[in-house]
TrEMBL record:
GO terms for biological process: carbohydrate metabolic process. It comes from Pacificimonas flava. It comes from the Bacteria. Belongs to the phosphohexose mutase family. Keywords: Isomerase, Magnesium, Metal-binding, Phosphoprotein. PANTHER family: PHOSPHOMANNOMUTASE, PHOSPHOMANNOMUTASE_PHOSPHOGLUCOMUTASE. This is Phosphomannomutase. Residues 374-449 form the Alpha-D-phosphohexomutase C-terminal domain. SUPFAM superfamilies: Phosphoglucomutase, C-terminal domain (SSF55957), Phosphoglucomutase, first 3 domains (SSF53738).
Length: 461
């Protein structure tokens, strides 16, 4: 067997729920081809014949899509190439075009020199051992061959119309910040048909992200949106990440409405239509969310962080709505069950209209818990999961009250704290939520104690 018949991926490329790397270093166009070839072979093995592809606005994305689609067609598939757009538009295309799978080329919220791949098998997620098995297949040259075909398919206008299906007739004055990410062109078409008034920031798609990084979970990236709200006296603002599957929000007073707080509002609306249903949130979410779902007659379920993992759990338990602290919001109620920030924005408008209250009033009425944002800090890639295991073992020996769903989430009289390893970056993620400032100090001290015991620097202040 020659080297052309097989391929080895960089050991960090294949992650828990996507493939991601540094372009020209841990990720090359040859990797992209072999991801297409091996994934295409898996689709063929499942009896599939066609796969959709899309890509975000990063400079490397068109070439990566070309390589992936070539790999898919060489595996014998018909490739539906939907072109540049947000990740949820690719998910939409797979559902509406009856494709047997999909590949979105996106670096999401990572720095500009990264890129990656999100996969669908059928209309469901493809993750974990299935992604890692692509590496085994590539290394062994265990792939199918065939004379596949490729065609360009434009779904953008149809996708916009689908988003509009659930838009309310409401005269909101909204600010929108695309951060030069892949949602820009779709958003321009969407707001042109939405009622109300709309102020747009950074809708030009630019892989250099010249204005700010497209990650709405970091408050510094919301500064321009806050200023716009203040300058124009807007009702609220919406921000998107680089590939349009995560939403951020700011109320009329400039306060961030975090992913779990948005889910509180959206859950109440969904539970009006589907009383008693299960609402899923990840381990980073506020206890206030789980309590609120229960108070509204729903069944709160805490689950692992990760868009693929959440989607799989939703299908397993029949949940109509799920969300993550990071801004992934998943609607099965009236929609397809995937994470779509543009659709979540439309549904937020609908929930506000039906509630008769403003986002500012709803945000102000939420419990006054004190919490940290996601605290991230770099650790060696090969150490991140080992550190979590060391912490888990020590806490277990101490008899701590903790959840081990994803990392460790520890409950105390002061509140709770979380420490988990990111699946997409060489970082640990911490968060704490307390009943007072003094209690938060004590919780952060507990995190620092565990980090120091594993030889890691303290949390950033």
């Amino acid at each position: 067997m020659t080297s052309a018949d097989r391929h080895d991926f960089h050991p960090t490329l294949l992650r828990e729920y996507d493939a991601r790397g540094i372009v020209g270093d841990t990720l090359t166009e040859a990797d992209a081809y072999w991801l297409g070839r091996t994934f295409g072979s898996r689709v063929r093995a499942e009896g599939g014949s066609k796969v959709a592809t899309g890509y975000d606005g990063r400079h490397s994305s068109p070439a990566m899509e070309e390589a992936v689609s070539k790999g898919l067609s060489d595996a014998g598939l018909h490739v539906l190439r939907i072109g540049l757009g947000p990740t949820p538009m690719l998910y939409y295309a797979v559902n509406e075009l009856d494709a047997d799978g999909g590949v979105q080329i996106t670096g999401s919220h990572n720095p500009p020199d990264y890129n990656g791949f999100k996969f669908m098998l059928g209309t469901g997620p493809f993750y974990g051992d299935d992604i890692r098995a692509l590496g085994t297949s590539a290394a062994a040259g265990d792939v199918t061959s065939g004379a596949g075909t490729r065609e360009n398919v434009d779904v953008e206008d149809d996708y916009v119309e689908r988003l509009l299906n659930d838009a309310p007739d409401a005269d909101f004055h909204i600010g929108w910040d695309c951060g030069n990410g892949a949602a820009g062109r779709v958003l321009e078409k969407l707001v042109a048909k939405l009622p109300g008034q709309h102020e747009l920031l950074y809708t030009e798609i630019d892989g250099d992200f010249p204005n700010h990084h497209p990650d709405p979970t970091e408050e510094k990236n919301l500064a321009d949106l806050r200023q716009l709200i203040d300058d124009k006296d807007l009702d609220f603002g919406i921000a998107f990440d680089g590939d349009g599957d995560r939403i951020g929000a700011v109320d009329g007073k400039g306060r961030v409405v975090w992913g779990d707080q948005l889910l509180m509002i959206l859950a109440e609306d969904v539970l009006r239509d589907e009383p008693g249903s299960t609402i899923i949130a990840d381990v980073k979410a506020s206890q206030a969310l789980f309590d609120h779902v229960a108070q509204q007659g729903g069944k709160p379920l805490m689950w692992k962080t990760g868009h693929s993992l959440v989607k799989a759990k939703m299908k397993e338990v029949g949940s109509p709505l799920a969300g993550e602290m990071s801004g992934h919001i998943f609607f099965k109620h009236r929609y397809y069950g995937f994470d779509d920030a543009l659709y979540a924005a439309v549904r937020l408008m609908r929930a506000l209209k039906r509630s008769g209250m403003s986002l500012t009033d709803l945000r102000g009425a939420m419990p006054a818990l004190i919490n940290t944002p996601e605290l991230r800090f770099e650790v060696p890639e090969e150490r991140k999961f080992a550190i979590i295991e060391e912490v888990r073992q020590r806490l277990q020996d101490e008899g701590a009250d903790m959840s081990e769903i994803d990392g460790v989430r520890v409950n105390t009289e002061d509140g709770w704290w979380l420490l988990r390893a990111s699946n997409t970056q060489n970082v640990l993620v911490a968060r704490a939520e307390a009943k007072s400032e003094d209690a938060l100090v004590r919780l952060k001290a507990m995190i620092n104690e565990q980090l120091e015991a594993s030889g890691i620097d303290k949390l950033p202040e």
